[in-house]
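QA checklist item 7 of 12: single-chain prediction sanity check.
[x] sequence parsed
[x] length recorded as 124
[x] structure emitted
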Amino acid sequence: MKIKKFIKISPFSVVVLVIALLVTISSYQKVGNDETDLLYVIPLKGAISGGTADFINRGLLEAEKRQAEGVLLELKTFGGFADSMTEIGDAISSSKAPVYVFIEGRAISAGAYIALSANKIVMS
């Protein structure tokens, strides 16, 4: 007797996955008049986690690949995981493009560490 395993995927799960992918893809913004004058804007809002570290790493690598003049990291967080914080801080410190952090209201704990890894910090 064969046992078949099926995975049920609800329509709701598919919709959530598609929305998550669209948000991730559209989160990086390019600001500039042409390809030689390019500033990447990467929003970092909410808890710092492994997914956040991957997201920031992808953004920084894309900015380097496009030879961006700089990266603006919009930061608003209460903090998060220490290993992710360290990974993001190391990525910012080793970025070829200068990284500027704009703190919107708060950057507590891991957020403060990440901000201190940048070339310049601006707060509202």
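[x] summary fact logged: The longest strand covers residues 99-107.
[ ] second reviewer sign-off
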